[in-house]
Amino acid sequence: MPRILDASDAGDIDTAAAMLTDGLLVALPTETVYGLGADAGNESAVSRIFAAKGRPADHPLIVHVDSAPSARALAGRWTDSAEILARRFWPGPLSILLSKSDLVPMVVTGSRPTVVVRVPDHPATLRVLRLVREHGSIGIAAPSANKFGAVSPTTAQHVLDDLGDSVDAILDGGPCSIGVESTIVDCTSEVAVLLRSGGVPSEAVSSELALHGLTLVVSGDAGGTADPSRAVAPGMLVSHYAPRAAVEVFATRAELEIRRRRLVDEGRSAIALPYDDDTYVYSRNLYATLREIDAQGCDVILALLPSSEGLGAAVRDRLMKASAAR
Ligand code: TXA
Ligand code: MG
């Protein structure tokens, strides 16, 4: 059993930081989803992340740090777009892709010359990140703390259910407030590119850059290429974020209802994902609800796509990926 640490307890936060410094794996709460953390400068600790998740070694990890200056030290070139976005959105659900400095080991980036960095907005995790930095760590590498390809965890219990003994401790910081992963923006050049929609709406990223005369390129549907060699961020592969049951998505309630009746007539069990007009509420509950429905063991989960406003684009993206043929 992993140690369960309490994020509201100062002593437990110290313990989490000390375990990370010692090369152990600690799951950390963030505002988006729980991350499976290891000291980014410790290659054997980072390797254990891949083993615990069952994740291919060429899938790069996000490095979490406590401040923009700490992120800057990991970048080969810190661009204007990175500076503008870091100042506006950190701490927060935004991750920035940059060329990497020599400080970042290749095992973290899947042998790429780039690194993704982020300052998460969770008080306990920010404190952990500051403590490990004071012990000389470059940052904490942390993918979402789920098995590869599965739905991301938004509670400590989800992490325990997925990873069990393969994680040394879980810092329990309660349910995640955003509930979907961070937005990833490629800031390697002055023309920023949206790589993954997420917790910061792309409109907000666009307008912040525009204030400074810079542009965000948003390709039709962020991510969603079926060809792994073409995916800039491997997490953007279709058929990611998938529960066990098949997922089908619908633009209207009427279409969803027709399909549900048909499935029931065929003797298959179908459950409709609870929908909320508020895309922030839909997003916060998305993964927990998918897990709950999955636990009931139905054949098909029917989901209504939200509008792409606010967090709707991220929710749409995750639902589309969950519904992609497996
Ligand atoms: O909200 C989040 O971003 C959460 C929390 C824990 O911070 N983390 C997360 O990590 O979602 P993960 O590993 O599940 O997704 C990170 C994505 C992956 O799709 C990965 O391929 C991409 O970021 N990525 C990381 N480093 C990269 C790099 N150097 N080049 C291209 N893509 C990269
Ligand atoms: Mg993930």
How would you describe what is shown here?
The protein is α/β, with parallel strands linked by helices and 326 residues long. Helices cover 35% and strands 17% of the residues. The chain has 11 helices and 14 strands. The protein has an 11-stranded mixed sheet with strand order 1-8-2-3-7-4-6-5-9-10-11, with helices on both faces. It has a 3-stranded parallel sheet with strand order 12-14-13, with helices on both faces. Helix 1 packs across helix 6. The two termini are 32 Å apart. The protein binds threonylcarbamoyladenylate and magnesium ion. Magnesium ion (MG) binds next to loops.
Short description:
With 326 residues, the chain is of the alpha/beta class.
Count helical runs: 11
Query: How many extended strands?
Result: 14
Uncertain stretches of 5 or more adjacent residues: 221-231
Distance between the termini: 32 Å
* 3D shape: globular
List keywords for this structure.
14 strands, 35% helix, 326 residues, 3-stranded parallel beta sheet, binds magnesium ion, globular, alpha/beta, binds threonylcarbamoyladenylate
Describe the secondary-structure layout:
Blueprint: E1 3-6, H1 10-21, E2 26-28, E3 35-39, H2 43-53, E4 62-64, H3 68-72, H4 80-89, E5 94-99, H5 106-109, E6 114-118, H6 123-134, E7 140-141, H7 156-163, E8 169-172, E9 183-186, E10 192-196, H8 202-211, E11 216-217, E12 246-250, H9 253-265, E13 270-272, H10 279-296, E14 300-304, H11 312-323
Parallel strand pairs: 1-8, 2-8, 4-6, 5-9, 10-11, 12-14, 13-14
Antiparallel strand pairs: 2-3, 3-7, 4-7, 5-6, 9-10
Bound molecules: threonylcarbamoyladenylate (TXA) and magnesium ion (MG).
Residues 143-144, 152, 235 line the site of magnesium ion (MG).
